[in-house]
Amino acid sequence: MQNLDATFAALSDGTRRAILGTLMEGEARLSDLAAPFNMSQTAVSKHVRVLSDAGLVVVEKRGRTRHCRLNAEAMKGADEWLSDYRSFWTRQLGNLSEHLEKGNS
User: Which residues contact 12 (CB under 8 A, 6 or more apart)?
Assistant: First the structure.
């Protein structure tokens, strides 16, 4: 559960979700991740650190630059937890659809 808490805490911030979205396209240097945001590289580094601590991002230092890549496997626990709720909402929407169809008959 602790990993799940860290995952959701990391995903709770829009900047961090945007960073993950960028990393879905492939590995990126930290400086490249900072470019689209109106914040310092230090601030982006803090966001990357939260993602790294949650296991969502792997950071590798090569020479003087840090390269980041997505570790989507770390989201598996969150996806499994959410799947129960996905099933619930699918059933609820199915029930609503049936109810609406009966009302139109």
Answer: none
For residue 3, pLDDT over 80 is answered with yes
Q: What is the Cα–Cα distance from 97 to 104, expressed in whole angstroms?
A: 11
pTM: 0.78
Reported as a single tens digit per residue, the pLDDT across 84-95 is 887 777 776 776
Number of domains in the chain: 1
Residue ranges of the alpha helices (H) in 1-105? 2-11, 14-24, 30-34, 41-53, 76-103
Answer positive or negative: Cα dihedral of 35, 36, 37, 38: positive
> 29 by DSSP, 3-state: which?
strand
* Domain encompassing residue 19: 2-103
What CATH number is attached to the domain comprising 47? 1.10.10.10
State the distance between the two ends of the chain, measured CA to CA, in whole angstroms. 47
Give which of 29, 31, 42, 27 is closest to 72, Cα–Cα. 27
